[in-house]
Amino acid sequence: MESIALILPIDELLPSLPLEGNTVIEAAPGAGKTTRVPAYLMDRIDGEIIVLEPRRLAARLAARRVASERRERIGDSVGYQVRFEDFTGPKTRLRYMTEGVLNRRIATDPTLRSVSTVILDEFHERHLEGDLALALLLDLQRQRRKDLRIVVMSATLDAAPIAAHLGGCPILRSEGRLFPLDIRYTPESALKLEDRVAAALDKTTGDVLVFLPGAAEIRRAIDACRRHDMLLLPLYGDLSPEEQDRAVEKTSQRKAIFATNIAESSITIDGVTAVIDSGLARVASDSKTTGLPQLSLGKISRASAIQRAGRAARTAPGTCIRLYTEQDFLSRAERGTPEIISRELSGLVLQLRAMGIEQTNSLPWMTPPPPADLQRAETLLDELGAKGDVAKRMADMPVHPRLARMMIEANQRNVVRKAARVAALLSSGDRVQTPDLIHAAERPLSPYAEKIARQLERNARNETHHWERGLAESILAAYPDRVAKRRKSEEYTVAGGISAKLSSPLPKPSEWIVAVDLDEMSERSTVMIRAACPIEPDWLLDYPVEAVDRYLWSREKERFEQESALVFHGLAIESSVNPRPATPEAASLLAAKIREAGWRRFLDVEQTEALLARVAFSKEQGIDVNFDEPRLLDQLAALAEGRSGFDQIRDAIKNGEWAPQLDHYLLDRVAPKTIPLHGKMSVKVNYVPGQIPWIESRLQDFWGMKETPKIADGKIAVLVHLLAPNRRPVQMTQDLGSFWAKLYPELKSALSRRYPKHQWP
After folding, report:
1. Which pLDDT value is given to residue 645?
2. Residue 372, H or E segment
3. Which residue in 404, 408, 443, 409 sits closest to 427, CA to CA?
4. Are 185 and 283 part of one and the same domain?
5. What residues does 564 pair with on adjacent strands?
6. 102 and 71 part of one domain
7. Residue where one domain finishes, among candidates 668, 703, 735
8. Residues 131 and 339 sit within 8 Å (Cβ to Cβ)
9. Is 383 exposed, middle or buried (0-12, 13-18, 19+ CB in 10 A)?
10. Beta 181-185 vs 318-322: how paired, if at all?
11. Are residues 42 and 132 located together in one domain of the fold?
């Protein structure tokens, strides 16, 4: 059946569209590629055609538009299949679906028997599921389905690399029919985002599409714009299909649609002639600590900004007001980063394991996944036991592999409904209001989380009455590497050595927990436990544990203690302690600690610094006495033999069991500690780096000395500090003979008056 619709720019390109082989189509926003290319092919080739859309809304709207243009009901020859919705039937030949739905279909239908063409729409967004879909399709095409056709489409695609990746296929371009577009920039402002949106709305006419980063910002902006006489409608992923449809359907009243990037790339919304762009989006990422998906606020790329602006001029001249400066726009990245190099990859690897693909890098990736990220994903899946049939069961669940593992365990313990609520809460992105996940399982969920829970609890058996333990054990199975042991109060040591603190106390204190959600608070250098589950340590004995003898350093006691323990991920389940191990290993560890602590922790600082200064002076004179600071530390470290703590080292030094080992004869000859003056009297020689060694004493102590004392085998005269009776210096000299002859007569009269009780010959 031929389509009946208005002429669109892409229509001119359709006759040149090859009916065999791969193709790349680059078409401007509003050209009509999403609806016209699939419908054109359906009328001319056999087999089923699948169109992959990055978002559920786009799949639903496109399918409805094509069905409407063909004067059919949705689900006849044209349908769509997304999470929670399947509007297809036995006669459906054109299916719009999200990328993840296709990947799960390939797992059960590896050759896509009835499919002749797969179209990847808006491929420039480079979602993880989209990259996986393309890699699987190319692998299938090269190995078993050479007749399978792949078409890649986008408005802002860099076409040449993808065409080369598809085997050097042809590139078709359509410039589209964009009406005149007036782009306005906004100076920097201290106003809140919602107030800037309200001010921009005053400057628009016609229906308006407002791009905001998330549902919370949408709610605040709608509240700020209520003074405007127009319909204010939200549009984001967690809304029901009915609510989303209400936002995009035609209305007689002027309206403003407040949308996330869900509306960035989909079919034209009739009536929109103005766009207000915040320039922000919540970008999908993954928690580094849990692996669960999360959304982080960030600036969109220039390509995304161009996509958004283009939605204002699809049916008439339009205006785009960017709530940021032109310089800001020019400084942004040209395109977004492919998710395959920024996302946690355990879900991707799990899907491949379920398909029997063990070598991930064997697939023809557009952008190969980073090896380190792949290794982390493989390690996690191995710990979760995701192999064989278990991997297939886990991959069949539309949640993170950890949560899929939890659901498998919950099924064995008859706690599926409670576990489904926990899985839905964690995977929906809702903030966990209490750190205790056991109690969270009984609290109300958001509508979106409720959908996930209902999907996961299908075929659930009757719940056991004592479900708390079963749920806790199921959570442990999903997060064995997140077990944590209490250190003090609300502080815990998490497996791997991370120190973390509960965001708020648990209803019942527990020594052992599973720290499911860890939040790194960079501004406070603290890791907070946002969601946790109390467990019993004996449950860990069902997992691989290690019997170890290890040495632990006690900061308080400053010594090593030998612990014999059953260890799970570095945490001792059971242990006994020998507080004074006298073993070679303990001695070696203590020696390293001595070097780390430094000699000042053990020796008299003043005396040792004086010794090191004498050694340094002797080296300046070309004399090596076989001693310096590193040798000093080596000699102290040698005391560690047979010992395990700093207190034993200090006792050994105090008891005279240690003295610095060096050539004392050479040192005393070159850099003596003292110099004799008269009879038994001697004075200390002070050695300071970069200065002449010096001595000091009362002026009277030097009477009769015409020669200045010398050191370094008589080569260097010391600097003499001559002191008055009050021990304050009156003169410094390196030439006593010259001092007595020239300076002393002048000083004598002043000293006699000031100190009359002393003789001044």
Report:
1. 96
2. helix 371-383
3. 404
4. yes
5. 549, 576
6. yes
7. 668
8. yes
9. middle
10. parallel
11. yes
Looking at the chain, the number of H-run helices and the number of E-run strands are 25, 31
| Structure confidence by residue, pLDDT tens digits, 341-365 | 888 899 999 999 999 898 898 999 9
- The residues facing 258 across adjacent strands are 210, 234
Angle at 642 between CA 639 and CA 645, to 5 degrees: 70
- Look up residue 613 and give its amino acid: A
Containing H/E element for 438?
helix 437-440
Per-residue buried b or exposed e for 492-513, using 16+ beta carbons within 10 Å of the residue's own CB: bbbbeebebebbeebeeebebb
Same domain, 149 and 47: yes
pLDDT of residue 266: 63
What is d(CA 536, CA 553) in angstroms, rounded to the nearest whole number?
A: 26
Q: Which of 162, 202, 183 is nearest to 305 (CA)?
A: 183
Sequence-distant (6+) residues with CB within 8 A of 717 are 708, 709, 710, 734, 735
Strand partners, 517: 531
The pair of structure tokens assigned to 516 is 């499911």
The confidence score (pLDDT) of residue 267 equals 65
What is the DSSP code string of 534-558? E--GGGGGGS--EEEEEEEEETTTT
**Using the 8-state DSSP alphabet, how is residue 645 labeled?**
B
Rounded distance between C-alpha atoms, residue 193 and residue 244, angstroms: 23
Strands 491-494 and 483-488: antiparallel
Total domains in the chain come to 5
Beta strands 94-98 and 255-259 are unpaired
Q: Cα(44)–Cα(62) distance, rounded to whole angstroms? A: 19
Domain stops at, among 527, 542, 557 = 542
H or E segment at 111?
none
Query: Can you tell me the distance from the alpha carbon of 573 to that of 512, in angstroms, rounded to the nearest whole number?
Result: 10
Strand pairing category for 255-259 and 207-211: parallel
Chain position carrying tokens 């299938």: 140
How far apart are alpha carbons 586 and 668 in whole angstroms? 37
3-state helix, strand, coil in the chain (%, to 5): 40, 25, 40
Q: How far apart are the first and last CA of the chain?
A: 132
Q: What is the 3-state secondary structure (H, E, C) of 486-519?
A: EEECCEEEECCCEEEEECCCCCCCCCEEEEEEEE
Q: How many CB atoms lie within 10 A of CB 569?
A: 20
When computed from its CA atoms, the radius of gyration of the chain, rounded to whole angstroms, is 39
Report yes or no: 177 and 242 within 8 Å, Cβ to Cβ: no
Q: Which residues have C-beta within 8 Å of that of residue 48, sequence separation ≥ 6?
A: 92, 93, 94, 95, 114, 115, 116
Distance CA 340, CA 128 (A): 5
Lookup result for tokens 């034993």:
648
Cβ-proximal residues to 209 (8 Å cutoff; 6+ apart), any chain? 256, 257, 259, 263, 269, 272, 274, 275, 276, 308, 311, 312
Residue 256 structural domain: 181-341
CA torsion sign for 345, 348, 352, 354 is positive
- Mark the ranges of the chain whose per-residue pLDDT is less than 50: 1-4, 523
